[in-house]
């Protein structure tokens, strides 16, 4: 494996930033049969609308840059995803982008790619215990902090109450980062006894049905004696809300989420979900596509952040996130063209809708 990492320090007014300049060498780059740069995209799943959007935006941007993409989805199966990576390597991709199902299991995929002198980007989810080249995501600790802060601020008595916590999948390193961010905010309140966690569990594979099971268990144990459900994404929020609906509690409890999926946006404006975290996917997918093409061309990349993956400090580019509520829906996901106004508000009578924007931007 021929790797060159150069550390540079850039000073700015009132601050200093450390940048990592990354390039993977190894001779002349190859191209596809069409003469274009070829990028491999290995996806954990396409079951959720969010990942379909990521893929489409990524492929579109690579094509705009003159490249081609081979994308494969593993349907949340580690064995299948390793096989997918092998196929992409066999197809002689110039760079590999992986959305891992299990961040630890995909360390093998990184090693396989490096043996073929192919640089690897972990997309949105970190690949741990590996010599990963680049990590492109959002500030996932910040996601958890914003979720927990919303709960604290919107409890019937702000800063005091009983909550149910539904974490994500233990195979996804991001789930632990979201929890870490939530804990950063909640710990002092829990230590004082102001916040009581009445039930908590992990939702395997982020499946809504597993979140529903967790919510049902909480209701069985505590009835309606809780104020909020701190769900880590929109899928788990949806499962929780299904359980709350069956008990006549939907809209009566705070429910958090993440990803600003269309169904979640609809629930928010209808009042059954309280908030979500908007992660501008066009920005993430677009930047990842540009970075993949640069790596494929053996160009230098500057990353001013690092994230430790258990083996090394991985050069990282982490984008900011935004809290989305009923009050700012139009000014966030709709203004950005992430979701159409009429789709978000289709269950709301026209006289109850906010003013429709004249011309929402397209991603």
Please describe what this structure looks like.
- By secondary structure, this protein is an alpha/beta fold.
- It folds into two domains: 3-132 and 280-319, 3-Layer(aba) Sandwich (Rossmann fold); 140-279, Response regulator (Rossmann fold).
- The chain has eleven helices and 16 strands.
- The strands form four sheets. It has a seven-stranded mixed β-sheet with strand order 4-3-5-6-7-15-14, with helices on both faces. It has a four-stranded parallel β-sheet with strand order 9-8-10-11.
- α1 packs across α9.
- It is globular.
- Mean pLDDT is 90; it is low at 1-20.
Compact description:
The protein contains 11 helices and 16 strands. With 363 residues, the protein is α/β, with parallel strands linked by helices. A 7-stranded mixed β-sheet has the order 4-3-5-6-7-15-14, with helices on both faces.
Secondary-structure map:
Elements: E1 3-12, E2 15-24, E3 38-43, H1 49-64, E4 68-73, H2 78-90, E5 95-98, H3 107-115, E6 120-123, E7 134-138, H4 140-154, E8 161-167, H5 173-192, E9 195-202, H6 208-222, E10 228-231, H7 234-246, E11 254-255, H8 262-270, E12 276-278, H9 281-296, E13 301-303, E14 305-308, E15 313-319, E16 322-324, H10 330-334, H11 341-344
Parallel strand pairs: 3-4, 3-5, 5-6, 6-7, 7-15, 8-9, 8-10, 10-11
Antiparallel strand pairs: 1-2, 2-13, 12-16, 14-15
